[in-house]
Amino acid sequence: MTKELPLLQLHHVTKKFKNKTALDDISLKLPKGRIIGLLGPNGSGKTTLIKLANGLLQPTKGEIVVNGLRPCPESKSLISYLPDTTYLNDKMKVRDILRLFEDFYANFDRQKAEQLLEDLAIDQDEKLKSLSKGNKEKVQLILVMSRKAKLYILDEPIGGVDPATRDYILKTIINNYSEDASILISTHLIADIEQILDEVIFINQGNIILQENADDLREQQAQSIDQIFREQFKA
């Protein structure tokens, strides 16, 4: 029986910006079929790690492997990425953005995206700039989750949205990935998201402090992930 490859592996990865070390000799493996929380205070290295995984940055040292592949166009096509800031043109209609994604990504399921938009009563003829903040966030998430990717990387997907939007986003995340895919969620809003997490990674000052099964960690510590995090990182 062949051992299943991790979806993402980092081998002794260091990333430096001039004199600052953003990630310091980190190694980790992300398995398939899991929702994994990447948790750490601001400036801990979360976004740097995410950009390295996406091939948007190159490591100073070490190696990154995505589903057995070194970074290349094929490895990038396996990852669907939601950045923490919008990159879409506000003046475009939702319909035109769907077309753009369909042209750009061979694995984009337009029918699925249209169904999710219909469920939310979001008019495809609306321009992005005329949507509420919550609906903009939903559109961006729908685009990302409508790709048939292996690894979904979501950077602060629930930052600054109302509780109803947050609940919709969490439900969409749970319902729209397959068993052979995984989701890596970077967030500092741990209490809002911990109920969907299978695993957690704590990162601080460019170091992985802990990687553990979420249920096991709660049982060991007799606390919520949020409480454990606060204890670990209290000033």
UniProtKB/TrEMBL annotation:
InterPro entries, sorted: AAA+_ATPase, ABC_transporter-like_ATP-bd, P-loop_NTPase
User: What is a single Pfam family found in this protein's UniProt entry?
Assistant: ABC_tran
| Gene Ontology molecular function | ATP binding; ATP hydrolysis activity
Indicate whether Nucleotide-binding appears among the record's keywords. yes
Q: Which UniProt keywords apply?
A: ATP-binding, Nucleotide-binding
Give the signal peptide as a residue range, or say none if absent. none
Instruction: Kindly provide the name given to this protein in its UniProt entry.
Output: ABC transporter, ATP-binding protein
